Amino acid sequence: MGKRQKIVNYPKAFACGMLEDGGRVLFLVGKERYGKKRLALPFVEIWGRGDPVSELGAAFEEQTGIDGQVHEVVFEGRYNAGSRKYKKWIPLLVFRVSAKRMRCRPSSEFAGFKWVSLKGALEKEKKKELFLEKWVSALLRKMAYHPRT
């Protein structure tokens, strides 16, 4: 008899919110892993038939402490929810978020926050001054090559 494979459930989609202010985007600073702090956008995994806009709105407020209004999708891509060996690609949606008050109070799962321009983030990552989550890095590179209208 061979090995039994365990059943892995994957989310239906991955949604993140991009709050812009004067050409800069809000990034959350993750807890330190392997001596490096990584930046990520506020995000939520969509399970089942949930509404991505309402789920992202609730997660955005919980993660950032900002009461934001979720608007249209500004970018669509793919996210590897599996591993390097067993890839499972799911849809990735980036929504534009607006807010009246931009004061950020990150939740305890994050170490802080940073306002960085998209191009500045890519340049700093190349110089190893800034460390982005892998999915954020790939997303920013795609967005740089396919600018929004």
Q: Care to describe what's here?
A:
The chain is an alpha+beta fold and 149 residues long. The chain starts with 12 loop residues before the first strand and ends with a helix. It has a single domain (13-145), classed as Nucleoside Triphosphate Pyrophosphohydrolase. Strand 5 and strand 6 (89-98) form a beta hairpin. The chain is built from 3 helices and 7 strands; from the N terminus they run E-E-E-E-H-E-E-E-H-H. Strands 1, 2, 3, 4, 5, 6 and 7 form a 7-stranded mixed sheet that branches. The model has no long low-confidence stretch (mean pLDDT 84). The longest helix has 13 residues, at 52-64.
The shape, in one word, is globular
Element-level helix/strand string: EEEEHEEEHH
SS elements, strand count: 7
**How far is it from the N-terminal to the C-terminal residue, by CA?**
56 Å
Q: By helix and strand content, what is the structural category?
A: alpha+beta
How would you describe the oligomerization state of the chains in this entry?
single chain
CATH fold-level label: Nucleoside Triphosphate Pyrophosphohydrolase
Task: Just give the CATH class.
Answer: Alpha Beta
Please identify which CATH superfamily we are dealing with: Nucleoside Triphosphate Pyrophosphohydrolase
Radius of gyration: 16 Å
Describe the structure in brief.
With 149 residues, this protein is of the alpha+beta class.
